[in-house]
């Protein structure tokens, strides 16, 4: 169910109260509260990709549970109003910690100050000596008296906070931690990482394990890092992530029905929205990306919104050219790649050149690939690029800076000078292969007519690299339509770009290390003429022959007259 004003969309806030009170468009996810309060584990971990509603759901849960204010009016039009858990509204101490923007050098102080702020709220309610005594001891915990400085080293904060709240109200507390994995993800050095890990391990263990003053806790983040000893002190926290989710499948992202409702009230084409933003799979069901659909509703345009909302810096830091090449070959649009996937990774495993099982775990958990299937016994799974938005983000990521030169990327704008065109195409292609490890592409065995065998990189790989690059810079190239491996004339062309008035046909030839790329390019050009590629399309044709020998590339271009 969608509430609020369809023309009033705020994409910059995760404040539930602000959204409801300002009548911003909101998709009712209040059933999350019902699901959370159903008794399961004392500590839960919910892992989801960015911009899919984690922070907003936690803030909604905080507004519902907190006994510090009356928020009942915020839920008047939502499903939770008729739930049996409504009796718990605004009934308990609840503490929300946001680790999203936490500085790796100041995190201990940040957490201490946040706990201190919450303690002061409950100290105001207490007239007894116990709460005051708890706070007095806490207030001095930031000092290291031997050093004579404030160090904020104490790791008793969460436990002490719930103890004080219980002393004041007689009620057990809820602890909500948003982006719990963020500080560890951004720890830049091994020394900082170890110190941070030790601190959070103790903080969580003391505050969440066997705490009689705690009712329940939930930690949300992008990564499932339970192989870290970060959470080793907890008693089997229940985890809900892309690999297994039996409770919160529809609570994050948009269901088909919710997406359809937004499209209807915002005047969007559901088929187009599905093509661009659907496809991430949780608990066996497909969901839409919340941020992207709402961005499309706000702007009335289709674009790569989620890809623009964050960076791929974490992925860039670990992926190798060879792994990039594998992604290109294995993740053509609509296809799936079978690979080993580690469901629980240690963040220290995420280094440059890490194992494929670690890389694909990162890509799946962070939402850049869809998990089609996964066998928990073997660790083997299938991944794919689920929609056009992520395909666009991948195309731009794969080649990085190689596709940032707008002058080179517009090489088809002038089709009058064939020598200049050949040079420009070659200048465009060379950086692509420099950004990939072409030498790591698998060679295949071929036979001469005399029966002798030889090795070379199949044309298919060069073909896929060009397709990926051409997709990524479609606006700069200016073509109306791109076709691949279609029957035409007396054979099948490799790639055809329809420029409107003119057809540009690319024919690719791959050779051995010893072959001359220039000879291969001439042969490719001649094949376009001999096979009459594009003759049936009744437009002027420009043929571009590309010869590849490992990373060497040569290009020949010509206007082809197939009218005779």
Describe this entry's structure for a reader.
The protein is an alpha/beta fold. It is built from 21 helices and 23 strands. Strands 4-7-8-3-9 form a five-stranded parallel sheet, sandwiched between helices. Strands 17-20-21-22-23 form a five-stranded mixed sheet. Strands 12-14-13 form a three-stranded antiparallel sheet, with helices on one face. Strand 22 and strand 23 (552-560) form a beta hairpin. The longest helix is centred in the middle third of the chain and has 19 residues, at 190-208. The model has no long low-confidence stretch (mean pLDDT 89).
Task: Summarize, please.
With 564 residues, the chain is of the alpha/beta class. 38% of the residues lie in helices and 19% in strands.
What's the SSE blueprint?
Blueprint: E1 2-3, H1 16-21, E2 26-27, H2 31-37, E3 43-47, H3 54-65, E4 94-98, H4 107-123, H5 129-139, E5 143-144, E6 149-150, H6 157-169, E7 173-178, H7 182-185, H8 190-208, E8 214-221, E9 238-240, H9 256-266, H10 270-277, E10 278-282, E11 285-288, H11 290-299, H12 305-308, H13 313-318, H14 321-330, E12 336-340, H15 356-365, E13 370-374, E14 380-384, H16 388-399, H17 406-409, H18 418-434, E15 444-447, E16 453-456, H19 459-472, H20 474-477, E17 481-484, E18 487-488, E19 491-492, E20 495-498, E21 503-510, H21 517-530, E22 541-549, E23 552-560
Parallel strand pairs: 3-8, 3-9, 4-7, 7-8, 21-22
Antiparallel strand pairs: 1-2, 5-6, 10-11, 12-14, 13-14, 15-16, 17-20, 18-19, 20-21, 22-23
């Amino acid at each position: 169910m969608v509430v609020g004003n369809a023309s009033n969309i705020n994409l910059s806030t995760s404040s539930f109260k602000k959204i409801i009170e300002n009548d911003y468009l909101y998709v009712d996810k209040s059933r999350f509260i019902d699901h959370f309060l159903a008794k399961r584990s004392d500590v839960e971990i919910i892992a989801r990709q960015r911009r899919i509603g984690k922070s907003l759901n936690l803030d909604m849960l905080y507004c519902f549970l907190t006994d510090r204010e009356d928020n009942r009016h915020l839920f008047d039009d939502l499903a939770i109003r008729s739930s049996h858990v409504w009796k718990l509204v605004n009934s308990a101490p609840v503490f929300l910690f946001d680790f999203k923007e936490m500085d790796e050098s100041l995190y201990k102080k940040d957490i201490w100050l946040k706990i201190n702020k919450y303690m002061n709220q409950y100290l105001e309610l207490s007239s007894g000596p116990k709460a005051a005594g708890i706070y007095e001891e806490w207030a001095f915990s930031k000092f290291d008296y031997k050093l004579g400085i404030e160090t904020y080293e104490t790791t008793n904060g969460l436990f002490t906070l719930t103890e004080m709240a219980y002393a004041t109200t007689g009620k057990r507390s809820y602890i909500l931690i948003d982006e719990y994995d963020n500080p560890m993800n951004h720890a830049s050095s091994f020394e900082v990482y170890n110190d941070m890990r030790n601190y959070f391990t103790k903080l969580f263990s003391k505050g969440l394990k066997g705490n009689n003053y705690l009712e329940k806790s939930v930690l949300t983040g992008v990564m499932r890092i339970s192989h870290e000893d970060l959470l080793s002190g907890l008693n089997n926290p229940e985890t809900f992530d892309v690999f297994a989710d039996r409770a919160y499948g529809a609570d994050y992202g948009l269901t088909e029905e919710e997406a359809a409702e937004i499209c209807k009230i915002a005047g969007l084409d559901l088929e187009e929205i599905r093509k661009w933003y659907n496809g991430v799979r949780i608990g066996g069901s497909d969901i839409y990306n919340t941020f992207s659909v709402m961005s499309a509703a706000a702007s009335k345009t289709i674009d790569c919104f989620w890809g623009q909302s964050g960076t791929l810096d974490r992925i860039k830091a670990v992926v190798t050219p060879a792994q990039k090449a594998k992604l290109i070959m294995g993740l053509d649009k609509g296809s799936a790649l079978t690979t080993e996937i580690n469901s629980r990774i240690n963040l220290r495993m995420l280094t440059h050149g890490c194992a494929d099982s670690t890389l694909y775990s990162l890509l799946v958990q962070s939402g850049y690939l869809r998990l089609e299937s996964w066998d928990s016994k073997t660790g083997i799974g299938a991944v794919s690029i689920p929609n056009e938005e992520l395909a666009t983000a991948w195309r731009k990521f794969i080649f990085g800076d190689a596709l940032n030169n707008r002058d080179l990327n517009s090489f088809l704008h002038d089709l009058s000078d064939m020598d200049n065109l050949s040079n420009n195409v070659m200048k465009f292609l060379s950086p692509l292969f420099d950004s990939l490890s072409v030498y790591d592409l698998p060679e295949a065995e071929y036979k001469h007519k005399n029966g002798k065998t030889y090795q070379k990189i199949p044309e298919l790989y060069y073909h896929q690299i060009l397709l990926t690059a051409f997709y990524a810079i479609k606006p700069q190239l200016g073509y109306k339509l791109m076709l691949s491996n279609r029957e035409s004339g007396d054979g099948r062309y490799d790639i055809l770009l329809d420029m409107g008035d003119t057809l540009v046909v690319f024919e690719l030839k791959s050779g051995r290390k010893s072959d001359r790329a220039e000879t291969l390019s001439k042969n490719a050009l001649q094949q376009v003429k001999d096979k009459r590629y594009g003759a049936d399309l009744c437009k002027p044709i420009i043929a571009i022959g590309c010869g590849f020998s490992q990373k060497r590339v040569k290009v020949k271009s010509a206007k082809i007259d197939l009218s005779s």
